[in-house]
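Give me structure tokens for this 154-residue protein.
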Amino acid sequence: MSNMTAWRFRPRVGGFYVALGIIPMLAVVAAFGMGWRAVPLALVAVAVVVLLALSGLVLGTWYALREHDLYVRFAVFFRVTIPYADITSVRIVDSVQASSALDRRRVRIEWRDAAVPWERVCDVSPADRERFLALLKSRVSPQAWALTAAGRGV
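Here you go.
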């Protein structure tokens, strides 16, 4: 990998988000199948808006392993740059907490930030988790992976 190359990863989309995408599509199909008079226009409008929002969420989310930092973009809501030198912990977690991860099984990254007195946390769910972790492991201090030796993580 050259110094200027960044590895970019798309998110893995879990079943919950898939279900949220299918429900609006079914409403639109029902509106076409039963005729517009059978389904209130407001329901179809809401379904289309939800579908567009979810597709923007999925398409707008990605993670990049750059030369000196990890860049996380979560649609229009969240963007963060995490220097590799500041990462204190990397582990696999199972969570449904709101985050930039679109799957329950996610990689939790904790790091120190001089701007705040506590450790910061960011969850990601790269589609190619094994490749993501291998590349991240080559950039992060071995101490951040110490928890994995105890069988608690990656």
